[in-house]
Design brief:
8 helices
């Protein structure tokens, strides 16, 4: 859990404006030395005191780079399987993606793959059983 901006501001102010060392400021305000060092460094580089956003998707940029190709491919050939799409990406770009990465990509873009194989009717199943 992130500590309050007020506490961060007091630590940064003690170091930047009052000339206190990071270690002394950390001890004075009861925070860890590495936290004080990070907060001051963040303030000096970005001018921000608040914590940077955490979490979120960090890996989809690689598959999103092929967005136009993938959406066009599915538009032209809607009955492709994820495995076939995986092979086409490997052939076209030399990049390997797992089926789960492709599934999440298409899910983000509201594209689903339905099983359209003809299923036997219930009556033909019952007839063949007797």
């Amino acid at each position: 859990m992130a500590l309050s901006d007020d506490l961060r501001e007091r630590v940064v102010k003690a170091v930047v404006e009052e000339g206190m060392s990071r270690n002394a400021a950390a001890k004075r305000f009861g925070v860890s030395i590495p936290s004080a060092v990070r907060w001051v460094k963040r303030f000096e580089t970005t001018g921000e005191i608040s914590p940077a956003p955490s979490g979120g998707d960090q890996r989809s940029k690689r598959i999103e780079a092929h967005r136009d190709y993938l959406l066009g491919l599915v538009r032209r050939t809607p009955d492709l399987t994820l495995l076939e799409i995986e092979h086409r990406l490997l052939q076209a770009f030399g990049e390997r993606f797992s089926s789960s990465v492709l599934w999440r990509f298409f899910d983000r873009h509201d594209i689903s793959f339905k099983n359209v194989w003809p299923a036997p009717s219930a009556s033909s199943f019952i007839e063949s059983a007797f």
